[in-house]
Automatic annotation (TrEMBL):
<feature type="signal peptide">
    <location>
        <begin position="1"/>
        <end position="19"/>
    </location>
</feature>
<dbReference type="InterPro" id="IPR005181">
    <property type="entry name" value="SASA"/>
</dbReference>
<dbReference type="InterPro" id="IPR036514">
    <property type="entry name" value="SGNH_hydro_sf"/>
</dbReference>
<keyword id="KW-0732">Signal</keyword>
<dbReference type="Pfam" id="PF03629">
    <property type="entry name" value="SASA"/>
</dbReference>
<protein>
    <submittedName>
        <fullName>Sialate O-acetylesterase</fullName>
    </submittedName>
</protein>
<dbReference type="GO" id="GO:0016788">
    <property type="term" value="F:hydrolase activity, acting on ester bonds"/>
</dbReference>
<dbReference type="InterPro" id="IPR052940">
    <property type="entry name" value="Carb_Esterase_6"/>
</dbReference>
<feature type="domain" description="Sialate O-acetylesterase">
    <location>
        <begin position="28"/>
        <end position="251"/>
    </location>
</feature>
<keyword id="KW-0378">Hydrolase</keyword>
Length: 265
């Protein structure tokens, strides 16, 4: 009886965890998601957002990959309380990319709400950079890092004039430390509404990112709606779904459009 129970436990573990078996040719396409609360996800996790995502895996605290399900920021090493984590853009992004390409994906979601870009820079006291780098290196043993998706700026929206130089430094350092100077880097606009009218100028600045950083892209937040009201900078779950699909559209063009094996759906 003990042997039967032990075998059953091993079977459950093998199904639940992608162990990165070197004997298989299947490798994961790895994506890093970092930023503040809208990247972490604050959308409400209703029943229609509780499913596991087919062919998508999430990096765990032990360095394994498990079937991905919301909240995807649950294993962030820098996150706020688990109860605050909800639907973010990585959910619909990964669903869309996995379906369009037929590839298996690995996600590293390591965001923290309320953070300034200054805290994300290499050498900053908060060590968010080091944590992201450590986790993505763990994930890269399962496959190839395809892109970094960055959604941040609500904490810096009143100072668009100083943001670009910091973002350039962040991207340069990440690409150098990850050994890929041409790694695609995708940013997303913050909510169009804001209590201090700072969103428009900040988003205008973000739209110029591709002009200042090679192989970078900017995703629109147009027509997205707030989680609660326009005093709230967070996107609703349904808006996060739209945002994630917009990220996927850009990443597909940047990373897969020239691959003959990718679906044309």
């Amino acid at each position: 009886m003990k042997h039967i129970l032990f075998s059953l436990c091993l079977l459950i573990i093998s199904v639940a965890t992608y162990a990165g078996d070197k004997s298989t040719d299947t490798k994961l396409d790895i994506f890093l998601f970092i930023g503040q609360s809208n990247m972490a996800g604050r959308g409400y996790i209703t029943d229609n957002y509780k499913d596991s995502i087919d062919n998508v895996y999430l990096l765990t605290p032990t360095g394994d990959m498990e079937p991905a399900s919301n909240p995807l920021n649950k294993y962030s090493t820098i996150r706020k309380d688990l109860k605050m984590q909800g639907v973010g853009p990585a959910y619909s992004f990964s669903k869309t990319i996995a379906k369009k390409t037929g590839h298996k994906l690995g996600l590293v979601v390591n965001a923290r709400g309320g953070t300034s870009i200054h805290s994300w820079l290499k050498g900053a006291e908060a060590n968010y950079y080091r944590e992201a780098l450590s986790r993505i290196r763990q994930a890269m043993k399962y496959g190839t890092l395809k892109a970094i998706i960055w959604h941040q700026g609500e904490s810096d929206s009143r100072h668009p004039e100083t943001y670009m130089a910091k973002l350039q430094k962040l991207v340069t350092d990440l690409r150098k430390d990850l050994g890929n100077e041409d790694l695609p880097f995708i940013v997303g606009e913050i909510a169009e509404w804001s209590t201090d009218d700072s969103s428009e100028a900040f988003n205008n600045m973000l739209r110029t990112v591709p002009q200042h950083i090679p192989n970078s892209y900017c995703v629109s937040s147009k027509e997205l709606v707030p989680l609660i009201n326009e005093k709230d900078p967070h996107f609703s779950a349904d808006s996060q779904i739209i945002l994630g699909k917009r990220y996927a559209e850009v990443v597909y063009k940047a990373c897969y459009a020239n691959e003959s094996g990718s679906s044309a759906q």
